[in-house]
Structures are given as structure tokens and as C-alpha cells.
Amino acid sequence: MKLFDVYPLIDVTPAKAEGSYFWDVNGNQYLDLYGGHAVISIGHSHPVYKKYLTEQLDQIGFYSNYVKIPIQSEVAEKLTQFSGYPDYTLFLCNSGAEANENAIKLASFHTGKKKIIYFSGSFHGRTAAAVACTDNPKIVAPINQSENFVRLPFNDIEALEHEFKTNQDIAGVIVEGIQGVGGVQIPTAAFLQKIEELCQKNNAVFIADEIQSGYGRSGKFFAHQNADVTPDIISMAKGMGNGFPIGGILISPKFESSYGLLGTTFGGNFLACAAAKAVLDVMEDEHLMENAKEMGDYLVSVLQGQKNIEEIRYQGLMIGIDLAFPCNEVRSRLVKEFNMLTGNASTPKTLRVLPALNVKKEDLQKFANALIQILNEY
To answer: Based on CB atoms within 10 Å of each CB, which residue in 39, 172, 287, 306 is the most buried?
Structure first.
């Protein structure tokens, strides 16, 4: 049986990984500056991560939410400390798309309304409602198309105000803390504050999608905290488990829970929570939010103004580098000539850099030297 061919693959086969590096099946070393779409938050094979998962597996790996799973509460308590949302509650699931599905559903349940506003350039997932509010017609199947999802221009306050004036059925607004697939596009503080204001005035739910931009990547725990806003629901995944599948939503105390309102079989299982706990403990012990800000500032300072770099958008270690031409050839050369992995975006010129939050300065300098060398040849 062959695999369903839906991924354009880089011709590299990782076999072992540690920190910001992995080694392929031939023993070649690669610098990982992408982390599998910002998933690797504390570095590959971190000793604390391996310890927590191994110890948990020695005891029990899985049971569903049919029984008490105390480690879920440990993760919630740790999130209270980090997130700045002590009065919010936590619902655990398996992925970012599932987190957004539950956020959208909860918004509709709570308001009794059915329209969700989303924005140009957005990516919220590939499942039913999540893909319906993702700005990529190629991945939205006919069955997912719905008039319940309203697309507005990103960072356009006037369009947002107009929609609220003319549409009385808005259940919520979903926006990424920083758009990832969209090319590391950063919402203005004024835009996020207007979303918060209009949702409060119109009985709508403000959903912050922090799946890629959260968990310390921006230098704060959530990227929206740079704009001093308080969403009603915050979705999380990617860096939450450092590679182990886990997602979740933080839910404002304005929402009332009831049995059966939300549910999941695998979400919040023992192993997933062990991974999540390891990530938070390492983030605390190694001061990774501070490192993310420092290292992001450092890399941008080295690259700013270099030949064939038109613009750099970033917060912490979520970095989008716009080149003077499409980035695919540059990405390919970084892999083939320098053994370095980076990412791209829906904007063709954007090179996306999403290293582990504990990446070292010397590794970023290696990348900068390689990128500058390539760009100087054009």
C-alpha cells in the first residue's frame, strides 16, 4: 500500500534529533529552524521531555476522560501560572484544528448565533468549521463552504465595524495572534482592541487562535498579550507538546459548562499531559520566553538591511523574512548546501523561521551567514 500523496516532501529523512539539530539516515547533521511548523518548542529530545514521557509510560499511557486524570489538573495549574488567565478553564483536545472547532462551537452555543468573522490570510485548520474560516479556497471542499463564515480584510477596522453594524447574527470573531501560514502578518494593537470592543458590545465571542503564535514564541506567552487584549477563548496546540499531539482551549468564566457540551476520546490523556507538563517546566526553568525575545531581536538585527531582504516581520522567534523574489530556491539551497531547514508561507516571497525557543545565538549566526551568502549571489 502506498501513502496518499498530499505532501511535497523535502528529500531528507531524519533518524535522530537533539536540541536544534537532527541527523538523517546517512548521519548528516541538519540545523532545524522550522521545528515542524513551530511544534518543537523546547528542542528535540529534551532530557526533561524524555524523562516525563518515559516515567508516565511506565505507569499508564492512556485512558479516556471516563475516569479522573490528575495530571490534567497539573497542566491547568501550570498554565494558570504562565498564561495570565487564572480564572479561565481548560479543555484539552488533540490538535489545533480541533481546538478551533471547539472554540467556534462554544461561541455559537453561548450566543445562540451562527456567523463567524475571519480574515484574509488566515489559517485555522483543515477540519469542517476550521477550514471554512481558512483563507485558502484550494483546501475548502464544497461541503465545507458556508455562508456562516464571513471573510474580512486583515487589519481593516472600518470593514470590521461595518460588518457588525449590518450583521446581527455574529457569534464570534476568530483571529490569529500572528498569522503563520499567511506570512507572519502581525495584527495591529488597534485592530485587536477593536475586535475585543465590538465583541463585548454585540454579544459576540473573541477567539484568539494562538496555535502557532502562542506558548512563548512571541516573547510573551500569547502573542495577543502584546496588544493588551483579553479574548474570550484562546486556542492552543503546536508548541504545547513539543511533538506529542495535544491541543486545547482556555475558556473565559462567562461560559457555563455542562456534561456533553464538548468531548474528546484522546484529548488530555496521560502521555499528552506529561508532554505538556514537560514543556511548561522547561520553559520556566530555562527562561525560554526571555530567550525567544532576545534571540529574535538578535537574528533580525543581523539580517536587517541585507541585500535582497525587503522586509522582516517578527515577534520573538516567529519570524517572516520577505525576499526580493520567491523564496523556494533559497530554501532549497539552504537545505542542499548548508543543511538547514526553514519554512515558507502562502506569500511566495516569505521565508518563515520558527526555531526552538531555546535556540542558541551561534546557531542563528550560522543561519544568518548562510542566508546572506546566498542572497549576495543574486
So the answer is: 172
